[in-house]
Amino acid sequence: AIILGIESSCDDTSASICIDGVISSNVIANQLVHQNFGGVVPELASRVHQQNIVPAIHEAISKAKIHKNEIDAVAFTRGPGLLGSLLVGTSFAKAFALANSIPLIEVNHMQAHILAHFIDAKPAFPFICLTVSGGHTQIVLVKDYFDMEIIGQTNDDAAGEAFDKTAKILGLPYPGGPLIDKYAKEGNPRAYKFPEPQIPGLDFSFSGLKTSIMYFVRDQVKADPDFLEKNMNDICASVQDRIVSILLNKLKKAAAQYNIKRIAIAGGVSANSGLRNGLNQTAKDLGWEVFIPQFQYCTDNAGMIAIAGYYKYLKQDFIGQDVAPMARMPF
Ligand code: ATP
Ligand code: FE
After folding, report:
1. Could you give phi then psi for residue 280, rounded to 5 degrees?
2. What span, in angstroms and rounded, lies between the C-alpha atoms of 104 and 114?
3. ipTM score here?
4. Which residues partner with 17 through β-bridges?
5. How far is residue 58's CA from residue 140's CA, in Å, rounded to a whole number?
6. 8 Å CB contact between 222 and 248
7. Pocket mutation for ligand 1, best pick of 163, 164, 239 (most atoms within 8 Å of C-beta)
8. What is the pLDDT of residues 299-312, one digit of tens each?
């Protein structure tokens, strides 16, 4: 079957073609306009999606070397995300399905981040997935394609937010995660020590870390106005090291508690080199089998929506034309 996947939950407009479970194209149009505002502006995001969606879909179809009449179903992100952004993808998907008389498939964006693993590696069930993105930090027990249980999550900021807010404190542009990663590569992770929050169970908290970084920077800059410029690499390496250790410690706890050694990471922060290296090291130490997505399937992309759509298509799990997007959407 040929599935068209559409993703528009935040600031990336993306379209993908999946042919019999294989991703043939994955086109991502980034919205650089938000850099001027230090974060995603929802109104603006929605309008740019409207400009990008038709070209992105044309490109995905042409790169996959198919004709649009060959598409068997259209899968779209129903939520969670920004309502105005979701509305663009949802409306387009509904119109496309209606015009071509093909079924419509709703996809949960957070499930899709996890199902991105079925684009190539295909982990056996059950496995544990740490989903770390701009809006979420979850430890998920994945029992089947669409049978997932959240066993841990953040009480406040997401891991991606911790990176982005730290970057803002350090005067770096949005989104700061990739930049912190870049500077961290040249720095000493033991240069500065930031506290590890003591949160019970498998839950997380990142707001205290953010506050301690804020006060640390304030005090250091007071003593030496050039502190940031001189020590950017070491600060980034130390912050990243702490965020990664918080994530890995909870992941170890989850693996032990559920006695599962198949461990995956997903979401934008799974692109982080510190997390990828740390996970590989932990896997060696503890005998885990780990699954790390290709970079293009870590941050928002329609490939993950198309693959999730493909598995729903196999179950003939379709949705009617009266479907509406959901800003908050449980599994
Ligand atoms: P959600 O999936 O929760 O709705 P989102 O879709 O906005 O949120 P993603 O696109 O999955 O999030 O991920 C974006 C986040 O990933 C941003 O916070 C960004 O800073 C972070 N990120 C991307 N690359 C890296 C990296 N190399 N290191 C650290 N963080 C990164
Ligand atoms: Fe996402």
Report:
1. -60, -40
2. 21
3. 0.98
4. 4, 25
5. 35
6. no
7. 163
8. 999 999 999 999 99
